[in-house]
Design brief:
single chain, 154 residues, endopeptidase fold (from Nostoc punctiforme), two-stranded antiparallel ribbon, globular, six-stranded antiparallel β-sheet, alpha+beta
């Protein structure tokens, strides 16, 4: 059942439906969409502090790093560096594949990263005891914590 849901979600993302608005899908380069789909393939994997692989699990920056790395792109491994990577874009100009950076009082360095998936949704590995998941950036918890959106794939 889980594999069927992941396959359906990936198909929707690739077709420009589902989480992606048509305008976001049109402007997101294919490589950026591949990065998002790579991250989506890890939905349900466990959180692991310092984790950066499906085998060990992921922390937030490890998931972002791994999804880009699997698609031949280099981004920094640490959240602090991811928060400065690429070019800054406004939230309303975010497109699938962009790194989203939030204030996170529970995090050691006060930052949390994820990958923008479109339609105000992002993929991330939240914290100890949780699993990789997609969430709305419009939820009250996340909506006022967004610090920056970083574009890696132009």
């Amino acid at each position: 059942m889980k594999n069927c849901l992941l396959a359906l979600l990936s198909a929707l993302l690739l077709s420009g439906c589902g989480f992606l608005k048509s305008s976001e899908s049109d402007i997101a380069p294919p490589l950026a969409r591949k990065v998002v789909n790579t991250a989506f393939s890890q939905i349900g994997k466990k959180y692991q502090s310092g984790g950066k692989s499906p085998q060990s699990g992921f922390d937030c920056s490890g998931l972002v790093w791994w999804a880009y790395q699997k698609n031949g792109l280099t981004v920094p491994r640490r959240t602090v560096e991811q928060a400065r990577a690429g070019a800054q874009v406004r939230r309303d100009n975010a497109r699938p594949g962009d790194i989203v950076v939030f204030r996170a009082p529970y995090a050691v360095n006060g930052l949390h990263t994820g990958l923008y998936a479109g339609n105000s949704t992002f993929i991330h590995s939240p914290r100890t005891g949780s699993r990789v998941r997609a969430e709305s950036m419009n939820q009250p918890y996340w909506s006022n914590k967004l610090l920056t959106v970083r574009r890696i794939v132009r």
